[in-house]
Amino acid sequence: MSTALRGPRARADSATLSMELLIGAGSGAGLAPGAEVQAVLGPGERAHGILAFPAPAAGLTDLVTRLQTRQASEGDVVRLGSLLFEALFHGTIGAAYREARGRARAEGAALRLVLTSMSAEIAELPWEFLYDPTLRHFLALTPDIRLIRNLPSLYPLNAPSERLPLRVLVGVAGPATHAGRRLFGLDVAAEQALINTALAPLVDESYLDVYNVALDRATDLLDAVRRTRPHIFHYIGHSGIVGGTPLLLCGPLGGEATPLSSAQLAVSLSLAAELQLVLLNSCWGGQAGVQTNLFGLVPALAESGVPAVIGWQTAISDRSAPWLAARLFAELAQGATVDEALTVARLALYTNSQVEPLAWGLAVGYMRRETTRIIAPPRHPWRLLVIDDEQVRADLLQSHLTRRGLEIVWAPGGAAGLTQARRLHPDVIVLDLKMPGMDGFEVLRQLKASPTTAAIPVVVLTSLGTDYEIALRAYTGGATYVIPYNGRLDQLEQVLRGNLHIPLC
To answer: Sign of the C-alpha dihedral, residues 428, 430, 433, 435?
Structure first.
């Protein structure tokens, strides 16, 4: 797996248009005819309709059961997704959906579909398999759609961090029995190794700090959260539903499980005031509703104030769970929002023959914040790194561009420039080609080979003239723009302001 880390300010926000669907908000709760649906497109833009499943609903129930027990064929899943789509997107709600899609496409934006359910019966349905029979595609596998869930809550959201490195707590539990009954075998060590390998480049570049903890006892999680104060909590192990109660199962490898309820889990994680994402790689952790209105682990954590929570709606094998996590972390490291990262991870699961065929739709995500990034945009000025052995030119750039509102950092050579780029994550790099020791071409090669710096725009400012071969070599090496230096900076300013959209005073 390859990662291309984009500095937290180097990636522009992906344009999105949101449409929230409040399902079951009226007097007709559950799957009975008359459950109200409200579509909210923006201030003052609302459409009202009803959830209309064809009678009898037994066909839907059977398809859901076949999906949960892994007996569903591709045709079953298409039928299930079509039933869900037609029950939701008909009449005025269907018209609002088509209008929203048309508006998003006209603006070159993605459409974020936020499903907010008011009842457990509705929340339990696998909405991630919504299938548009007219366009013949699953919404969750559509690149310009972000399918996510939400949950009404009075709890305030955790505040995002503004500093690197981000702290990732990987909690691992591998008990063999619970209440005397044997648990399904899970290779937690292999999954932990895969996740740590996937995150290693980001750790090396000081973007992440990863803490691994064995959750042998329920109190181990509380102690680890108190010690590390993570931004991300990733759980590897068992969860389940016992007596109608969703539980996360702690316990030593091969030993007896100690259950942790959703309330106890939420309390343990509440010590991390900057927690932004919880990923539960365990069976049934993402089930939306359990009987009446008792919500499962994933929505319960979202309700408690965690901005984004992802889990699995059903049992899942250790073939699929690590792949989702690895790709999700890679996308988040590039600066993607949680909903964007989850969309790409679903697409990756769908195209991966090594995982379960339906794993892409079994991953469920709740996102409480409109745009959730794991780190908030810093408030300090846009940062430009100058890699140039000539101090006179560096001083000119610093003097001129500092007055235009930029923060300028100078690295007097290639090796120093690479170190500064990895440490500072600048918004843009201005690079000279002709330098002693490590020249600009080698610097460019190493910048593009590193997960931390690969996506940072590089403007080559060279006194080697406008030689076509030199420019072609620089562009082939990954330069964003190549500008001949003639003692003036007007062309560089134009590129920064007009092409890279960096505001200049």
So the answer is: negative
Mean pLDDT of the chain: 83
pLDDT band at 7 (very low <50, low <70, confident <90, very high): very low
φ, ψ at 77 (rounded to 5°): -65, -40
Q: pTM for the complete prediction? A: 0.70
Residue of 69 and 80 predicted with greater confidence: 80
The verdict on whether omega for the bond into residue 451 sits within 30 degrees of 0, i.e. cis, is no
- Which tokens sit at 201? 């480049």
DSSP label of 375: B
Residue showing tokens 């408030």: 379
Question: Which of 118-127, 216-225, 473-482 holds the top average pLDDT?
Answer: 216-225
Long-range contacts of 99-105 (CB under 8 A, 24+ apart): 99/41, 100/17, 100/19, 100/41, 103/17, 104/16, 104/17, 104/144, 105/144
Q: Which tops the pLDDT comparison, 154 or 89?
A: 89
Length of the chain in residues, anyone?
A: 505
- Please give the residue that has the higher pLDDT: either 402 or 1: 402
CB distance 440 to 462 below 8 Å: yes
CB 263 within 8 A of CB 294: no
Rounded Cα–Cα distance for residues 101 and 109 (Å): 9
Residues 125, 287: Cα–Cα separation, whole Å: 9
List 181's β-bridge partners, or say none.
178
Q: Rounded to whole angstroms, how far apart are CA atoms 375 and 369?
A: 13
Distance CA 146, CA 144 (A): 7
Taking Cα atoms as reference points, which of 248, 359, 242 lies closest to residue 300?
Answer: 248
Q: What is the mean pLDDT of residues 139-161?
A: 84
Across residues 146-172, what is the average pLDDT? Answer: 82
Residue 243, phi then psi, degrees to nearest 5 = 60, 35
Q: Is the pLDDT of residue 331 over 90?
A: no
Distance between CA atoms of residues 268 and 353, nearest Å: 37
CA–CA separation, 494 and 81 (whole Å): 49
Secondary structure of residue 279 in the 3-state scheme:
strand
Q: How many Å apart are CA 466 and CA 173, to the nearest integer?
A: 60
C-alpha to C-alpha distance for 130 and 124, rounded to whole angstroms = 14
Average pLDDT on 388-412 reads 89
For tokens 């009075």, the residue is 154
